[in-house]
Design a protein that fits this description.
Layout (H helix, E strand, L loop, with lengths): L4 E16 L4 E15 L4 E9 L16 H33 L5 H10 L25
Antiparallel strand pairs: 1-2, 2-3
């Protein structure tokens, strides 16, 4: 497999809480949506996932308006952990490998396949294969 470059294509806040009185914080991010992308010399593949975040540390709190993409990336990486991140990257790598192994057919090859594939007509129904309808009861008058 060729070299794969992984990156965080997108990270978005999808759920936040306006105030947490227990922590004394405002605008706490609860969930993030991320896109992890891998690319090789020919293809791109990605994984999209929603991630619930742990409660923030009040001593290290950053308001939403001041967050950077790098801070969000570090939160996602922390919440996922090394093993889960490796699983995601391995899945992306497998998708890229599957893309490489798929044969791309030219129009000429598709036409040859179509021309050489016989059209098999549907068989005519026979009495053995055609079920008799259930008789409809006739009411006596």
């Amino acid at each position: 497999m060729s070299n794969i470059t992984y990156n965080w294509e997108r990270i978005s806040v999808i759920d936040s809480q306006s105030t947490d009185t227990a922590l004394g914080l405002r605008h706490i991010i609860k969930k993030l949506w991320f896109v992890r992308e891998g690319s090789d010399s020919k293809n791109k593949a990605d994984i999209r996932q929603v991630l619930a975040l742990s409660a923030p540390d009040p001593s290290n709190y950053t308001p939403i308006s001041s967050l950077t993409k790098q801070q969000l990336v570090s939160w996602v990486e922390f919440e996922l952990g090394t093993l889960k991140l490796k699983e995601i990257d391995d899945l992306i790598a497998q998708r890229l490998l599957d893309m490489q192994n798929r044969k791309q057919l030219t129009i000429e090859e598709l036409q040859q396949i179509s021309a050489s594939t016989p059209i098999i007509p549907e068989p005519e129904p026979t009495p053995e294969t055609t079920p008799e309808p259930d008789p409809v009861p006739i009411e006596e008058v």
